[in-house]
Amino acid sequence: MAKMWAGRTDGVTSKIADDFNSSISFDSRMYKEDITGSMAHAAMLASKNIITQAEADELINGLSGILEDLETGKLPIDPEAEDIHMFVESVLTERIGDTGKKLHTARSRNDQVALDLRLYLRSQMESFGEKLNTLEHVITDKAEEYKSVIMPGYTHLQRAQPITFGHHLMAYAQMFLRDIDRLKDTKRRMNVSPIGSCALAGTTYDTDRRFEAERLGFDSVGANSIDGVSDRDYALELLSDLSIIMMHLSRFSEEIVLWSSWEFKFIELSDEFTTGSSIMPQKKNPDMAELVRGKTGRVYGDLMALLTTLKGLPLAYNKDMQEDKESVFDAVDTVHICLDVFTGMLGGMKAIPENMRKAAGMGFINATDLADYLVGKGMPFREAYKISGRIVSECIKRGTVLEMLPLEEYKSYSGLFDEDLYEAIDMENCVNKRTSEGGTCTASVEKQIADVRKMLH
Asked: Which of 108, 120, 188, 193 counts the most CB atoms within 10 A of its CB?
C-alpha cells in the first residue's frame, strides 16, 4: 500500500518494515486529541484565509463525524494504518474528498504528534489529581478514626517512640500532597502548545499559533520551533512524578504487608483486597499491596527507558521519539490502576488497637521520656541519656518494663527520681506531651487532618 508520504520514494515498504514502523497499536488511544487538535487547526487556517470558511466547516464536520463514529464503535481503527494521524486523515479524505487533503496545510506530523501527546497527558494529569484527592480523603478519614490509637513508631525498623496511628497515616497524607503539587507544577510547563512548529523550522504560511493554543486551552506557545518538535521534557517530568507517586505507594504497601502479618497484626485487610493460598487454608495474603510494591519497579523502568532513548538524540525530530509513547502510556495505566486498588484496599483496612498498644508497651519506647524527666529535674541530657540506658538494660535482664520498676530501684540510679516519674513515662502521656507543631499528640493530629482537608478543598 502506497503511503501518504510517497513522492521522494514510491511509498512502498516491506510488511516487516511496515510493522516495525507502525505505531497505530498504541497511539490510537490519542484519537480524540488528534481530532480535537485538527479541528482547531482547520479553524485557524480559515481565520487566516489559508482555506475558506466553507472548507473549514466541511473539515470540522467531517472530523466531528469521525470522532462520534470512533467513540460509538461504528468506525473501527484500521490496524494496517501507520499511525492515528494518518488514519484520521485517510478516513477524512475518503469521506469528504479533496478538501480533506487541505487539513495538513501548515503543519507536520512532528508538531501534530507533539500536540496530541501534550493534550493526552494533560488530561491524564487531571485524572491523577482527582484520584490522589480521593486517596487523601480516605487517609484523613482513617487518621481521624485512629487519631488517639497508640502504636510504636519505628526507626531502623526498631521500636523507637510512641506515636498514634493517625499521626503515622498523616505522614503519607503529606507525601501525596506533594505529589499533587508536583503534578500541578509539571502541568504548568507541559501546557505550552507546539503546534505551528511544523517539521522543525516553522512555516511560510501566515498562521496564528496563538489562535490554536487558546482554542485548545494552552497557556502559551513554544518560543522555538525546533524545541517544539523535539521536546519531551514534559513526558519525562510526568514519568518522574509518577515514579515518586509509586515510591510513596510502595512504602505504604510495605508497611501494610508488615502490619497485616501475624508478627505485627496491627491491621486487618478486607477480604475484597486479599487472596488465599492454593494449599495453605489459613493464609490471607496482602497481594494487592505486594503488587503495588512490585509495579513500582515497572514505572521506574518506564522513566529510565525514555531517559535513555532521549539522551543521545540530535535535534530536531528523530523516529526514536516514537518510543516515548509506550513507556508513558504504560506508566499512566499502571499508576491509574494502582491508585484505584490502593485506595479501595486502604478504605477497607481496619486497625487492631489492642495489638498496637501491646507492642508499644514492650519496646521501652518511653525511654526518651525517662531521660527527658531527668532533664526536667536539671540533669544534663547526655548524663540523663546514660542513666536511662542503664535502667533499660537492667529491665531487659529482669524481663520487666520501665513502668513496673519500683521507685526504690530508680532512686538507686539518681536521687532526682520521684513519684511523678510514673506519670512522665505513662504511654498516653508520652504521646500527648508531644505538642510541638506537627507532633503526634491528638490535638496535633486533628490539626494536621484539618489542614490537609482545607488544602484539598
From this structure: 193
d(CA 408, CA 426): 18
- How many Å apart are CA 63 and CA 37, to the nearest integer? 10
Alpha-carbon span 229 to 400, nearest angstrom: 70
Low-confidence stretches of the chain (pLDDT < 70) are 1-13, 281
Q: How far apart are CA 427 and CA 153, in angstroms?
A: 12
Q: What's the rounded Cα separation, in Å, for the pair 404 and 422?
A: 9
pTM over 0.85: yes
Tens digit of each residue's pLDDT (9 = 90 or more) over 363-378: 899 999 999 999 999 9
Whole-angstrom distance, CA of residue 67 vs CA of residue 37: 12
- Amino acid 337: pLDDT: 98
Which ranges of 73-108 would DSSP assign to H, the alpha helix? Answer: 84-96
Beta-carbon contacts of 123 under 8 Å, excluding residues fewer than 6 positions away, are: 33
C-alpha cell at 55: 472548507
Q: Are 442 and 148 in contact (CB under 8 A)?
A: yes
Contact indicator for 147, 166 with CB cutoff of 8 Å = yes
Of the residues 220, 270, 277, 393, which is catalytic?
277
Q: Which residues touch 327 (CB under 8 Å, ≥6 apart)?
A: 239, 302, 303, 305, 306, 309
Q: Which amino acid is at 52?
A: T
Q: Is 156 a catalytic residue?
A: yes
Q: Which CATH architecture has domain 360-444?
A: Orthogonal Bundle (1.10)
User: Active site residue: 14, 156, 278, 457, which one?
Assistant: 156
Return the bridge partners of 150, or none.
Answer: 164
Environment class of residue 141 by beta-carbon count within 10 Å: exposed (0-12), middle (13-18) or buried (19+)?
A: middle
Q: What CATH number does domain 21-105 carry, 3.20.20.120, 1.10.275.10, 3.30.360.10, 3.90.550.10?
A: 1.10.275.10
Three cell numbers, residue 259: 502490619
Q: Whole-angstrom Cα distance, residue 337 to residue 217?
A: 27
